[in-house]
Design goal:
Elements: E1 4-8, H1 12-18, H2 23-44, E2 48-55, H3 63-86, E3 89-95, H4 103-116, E4 122-130, H5 132-146, H6 155-159, E5 172-175, E6 194-196, H7 207-218
Parallel strand pairs: 1-2, 1-5, 2-4, 3-4, 5-6
Helix pairs in contact: 1-2, 2-3, 2-7, 3-4
Length: 237
């Protein structure tokens, strides 16, 4: 079972377009999927779940769509906070640095993180206003400010300056809709992740789809750059 699963929630716009609906309808429909996947991950024993909700590049979308997303996320946070807390889920938001984030949304997110901060059944990280390159740049700046000599910088010391540095590396990334891109998502943490690209669009993605992705992960042999030994003890070619 993967310890840390991340989902790139892709396909909301195409889901809406196929139904001749505005893009916002796809975002609204995705709420059901989010809750279904959270419940499926917790029930399966996944300890860490990360969801890519809004990137630093998504600010380039039309103002009406961005405004809708801000209102939608605030409503979802308020609506589902009691459920998440009752399930023992610790909630975190990765990003949240852009001044364009509405103050009301920022307060509700801070309240959710405080409410669930002591929970340990599962850690849910929502990447919102997130960019992997931005996180790496901020970690480098933090290292410089701390006065660490260049010769003393290691992967471990660098990772300690990333946001939520206790987060384990991602084992499995699920990107829906069949698209095969990283999209600047948790670049450091996904370095050795396995990827699965189901063709189903995110609003139609459900617990059985999630479990199939877990099954696909369990069929793979993770080598981390090494070569597994053959049956006679010698490395395979």
């Amino acid at each position: 079972m993967p310890r840390h699963v991340a989902c790139v929630m892709d396909g909301n716009g195409r889901w809406a377009a196929r139904r001749s609906l505005p893009r916002t309808a796809g975002h609204r429909a995705a709420e059901t999927t989010v809750i279904d996947v959270i419940e499926a991950a917790r029930s399966a024993g996944v300890g860490w779940l990360s969801l890519f909700a809004f990137s630093t590049e998504n600010w380039r979308r039309p103002d009406t769509e961005v405004e809708f997303l801000m209102h939608l996320v605030r409503r979802v946070v308020r609506k589902h906070a009691p459920l998440l807390h009752a399930r023992g889920i610790r909630c975190r938001f990765l990003g949240m640095t852009d001044p364009r984030i509405p103050p009301g949304l920022a307060r509700d997110i801070a309240d959710l993180m405080t409410l669930t901060g002591r929970n340990r059944q599962m850690t849910l990280t929502v990447a919102f206003d997130h960019g992997g390159r931005k996180d790496i740049v901020e970690a480098a700046r933090s290292l410089i400010r701390s006065g660490v000599p260049a010769g003393s910088v290691t992967e471990e010391s660098f990772a300690a300056h990333l946001p939520f540095s206790d987060t384990p590396d991602v084992d499995l990334v699920i990107r829906t809709s069949g698209e095969q891109r990283i999209s600047n998502f948790m670049l450091w943490q996904v370095a050795y992740a396995e990827w699965v690209f189901p063709s189903v669009l995110w609003p139609d993605f459900r617990a059985p789809d999630f479990l199939r992705c877990l099954h696909a992960y369990r069929q793979r042999e993770r080598r981390f750059g090494a070569v597994p030994p053959s049956r006679n003890g010698e490395p395979e070619s």
